[in-house]
Amino acid sequence: MKRGSKWLIAISGAAIIVLLLHLFAFTSYYIPSAGMENTLIQGERIIVNKWSYGLRLPFMSLFPYTRLKERGVEKGDVTVFNNPANTLQPVIDRREIFIGRCGGIPGDALLVDSLFTIILHRQVNPDEKALYSYPKHKEKTLYDLFDSLSIANNKLMGQDGDKYVRSFSRYEYYLLQQAIIKNDSLWIFPFTARNSGNARTLTIPKKRQSVKIEPWNAMLFRNTIVLHEKKQAEVIDNTLYIDGAPIHEYTFSQDYYWMVSDNSINLADSRLFGLVPQSHIIGKAIFIWFSKEWGTSIFEGYRWNRFFKKIP
């Protein structure tokens, strides 16, 4: 056999192995936005394990949804899934790929405000961001602390009355706390939105369990029923109607998840695209394999300390 033919067979074999691994084991995903900072930084590339929740078989345009050795997503997992709100693409595995942290699993009861933000959401790792407020007259003091603690690229998020609002990771907030209390009483605290007093309990649908439909959650569940339960539904005068009949409870046919962003100022999570069905889950984000600063040349900007970092 000629040497050229041997090389062609070797390259073809390697390509087939890579394709099989991509389809049935692992895949790479590009982080397109700042929604998961500081856990994942825009522009990074990660490895996703497709077996973490059972392998969802590919080619869903040809075969019905099937998952081998199915397991549920665990609360706190950084999960990769298909866009559940895409109404233009009927084939699930051809829809855009999203990433988020699982904030609610089937059967969970989440305390949310009127914007469906989880009020008692617990930060699960030091890099996860949350909102904090502080008096406006402390702005210059805060900038001095930024310089001394090497906290960079922190932008003002907004204001609430006589207070400013910024986003910090738990680690950054810890550093600020320790620096402030050396010479002063603490003046920066977790931000509580004005509308958080309208707290309600959101039940995340679980397969074959009934969920109560109320005026405040009727539209969320209507969208879920239309998109994923494939039934005709509408909301009239805050009442959910299915096939023309008023409904006050509904039993869902599959498990659903509530996905959140680590960067709390980012709304591109379940508050925007709604509940995520089990059928849309691709896998669990395992580690970062490539990290480089946006807009830098080919020879610079590499974040070597983040290469092959495990995702918490």
Automatic annotation (TrEMBL):
GO terms for cellular component: membrane. PANTHER family: CHLOROPLAST PROCESSING PEPTIDASE, SIGNAL PEPTIDASE I. The keyword Membrane applies. Belongs to the peptidase S26 family. Its EC number is 3.4.21.89. This is Signal peptidase I. It is an enzyme of class 3 (hydrolase). Pfam families: Peptidase_S26 (PF10502). The chain crosses the membrane at residues 7-31. GO terms for biological process: signal peptide processing. It comes from termite gut metagenome. The keyword Transmembrane applies. NCBIfam families: sigpep_I_bact. GO terms for molecular function: serine-type endopeptidase activity; signal peptidase activity. Keywords: Hydrolase, Membrane, Transmembrane, Transmembrane helix. Residues 6-153, 252-290 form the Peptidase S26 domain.
